[in-house]
Amino acid sequence: MTIKAIITDLDGTLLNSNKQTSAYTKHILERTRQKGIHFCMATGRCPESVEYKLEEWGLDENIQFILAMNGSTLYDRKEKYRQDFHMMSGDALIEVVKHFEDLPVLFQVLYGPARYTSKITPEWIQRSKLFGETLIQVDMKEFLHHRTTNKFILLFEPDLMPVILERASHFHDASLYGFPSGKDCFEYVDSHINKGFAVQKLADLLTIRMDEIAAFGDAGNDIEMLESIGLSVAMKNGSDAIKAVAMYQTDYDNNEDGVAHFIEDRILKTDD
Fold it and tell me: Is the CB of residue 160 less than 8 Å from the CB of residue 103?
C-alpha cells in the first residue's frame, strides 16, 4: 500500500499531555515531508488556533492542510484558502441551549481567534491565552440569533458526562449531530459533518484515493475518519470505541511519540 497522505488528530494523538511535540516527532515529520507525503491535521480546533501554535510545535514547515472544526473547515496554509461546509443555524442551537441550560454547563462558539462564552472563568482565561484566542462573554441565546456557526461546544466537569449523554439522548433535531469530544466536552455540528467528510474533501483536492491515506486518532470524533481511509491507526491511549474500528494500534501512547514511531516503523520503512 502506497501512502500519499497522513492525517492525525492533535490532542491525545500527535500532541503529548503538555500540548507539545518532541524533537523525535518533528524529525519524523520532516522525513515524511521529504518523502513527498502530505502531512495534515484533523482537529476540533479552529484553523486560526492551530496556525497560532504551529511554530511553537516546530511543525510550521511540515503542515500544509488543516481539517478543522471537526471536519467542517478545510484550510490550505500555502494558498491561504479556506472552505467551510454545512454551517449550523444559530436558531437551532438556541434550542440546544434551552435543553441544557439548567445544568452547570458553559456554552461556547468559535469565530476565528474569538471564543464566545456564556461565562468567563479563570480556567478559560488561561486556556484561551494558550491558543491566542480572545475570550468574550455573551448572552448565548441572543448571540446565536440569526447567526450560523461550524460547531457548538458544551463544557462541564467530567463527572457530569453521564448526565450530559442522557440529556442529549432526548434532544432531537435531524440537522444537528452531538457527540462527546473529550472527558469534559460535548459538541454539536451539522449532521453531515465529521472528520471523514473533510478527509474526502482533501482527497478530492489532492486527487488521491482514500485508500492512499493513513490516519491516527484517539477519540470518538475520529471514528468516521478512521473508517473511511486505507490505513487506520488508533492510539494506545485511545478509547475502546476508536480501537474497535482501527486496523492497527500504536505501540506507544501520545506521551511516547506513538504517531512518530508508527510512521517510522510502518510507513517510512515500507516506503523505503
Answer: yes
Q: Which residues, 6+ apart, have CB-to-CB distance to 130 below 8 Å?
A: 19
CATH class in words for 88-190: alpha beta
Residues with Cβ within 8 Å of 200's Cβ and at least 6 positions away in sequence, in order, are 210, 228
Cell of 155: 463544557
CA-based nearest residue to 208, from 37, 87, 91: 37
Which residue, among 241, 221, 243, 220, has the nearest Cα to 233 in the 3D structure? 243
The topology (CATH level 3) of 5-84+193-271 is Rossmann fold (3.40.50)
Which tens digits make up the pLDDT trace of 160-214?
A: 999 999 999 999 999 999 998 888 999 999 999 999 999 999 999 999 999 999 9
CA 192 to chain centre: 16
Contact 16, 255 (CB under 8 A): yes
Residue intervals of the chain classified under CATH 3.30.1240.10 are 88-190
